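During the reporting period the student researcher (J.K.) took over the structure-prediction task from the postdoctoral fellow and processed the backlog of single-chain submissions. One of the processed entries is reproduced below for the supervisory committee.
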Amino acid sequence: MKDSIIITIGRQFGSGGLEVARHLSRKLDIPVYDRELISKAAHDSGISAEMFEEKDEKRGFSLKGMLLQSFGAEYDVMSEANIFRLQSEAIIDIASKGSAIIVGRCSNYILREMQTTFNVFLTAPMEERIKRISERMKVNAEEAEAIIEKKDRKRSEYYNYFTFGEWGMASEYDLCMDSSILGTEGTADMIIEAARKAGRLTR
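J.K. obtained the following structure tokens:
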């Protein structure tokens, strides 16, 4: 664990966070964990991955969910609190075993006590995000913007609820970057340089 590093990546939807993570993975030869976290948490808990997928980075406000959480999350195995706990355990387990790049899922907060963590938040102008999502999802600009706004709102609600912090707030991270300035590969290079200067990356 001496030379290990955990890079966490929070991101606005459409800012290229997963692309940046994959560049980092290739350059540093360490694994990326995104949806794999869902599969791992599902496998470890015995709950189907499909059910995890349904609640992934979402914060529901049903009356049933509120009542169940009021009386204890153990009464509902699929409560938001229980899903968050299971994913947190998966993230901690991954981080305890060596270097990793972990995308989203409040990983910067969950691993806040680890000295080897370098926390990044990625943003980009709306027009750049609309272009990326339009191309990726084969939708028009208006549809892409609506999807982006919904996804960002869900991520913000999820993060703010479970961490009591503020999603995207600079003070929550070690580095905040606009990925459109240098492109996704250039952004990955800048993250590596910053992590080295911060003493988190020694290779």
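The committee noted the following: The radius of gyration is 17 Å.
J.K. will present the remaining backlog at the next meeting.
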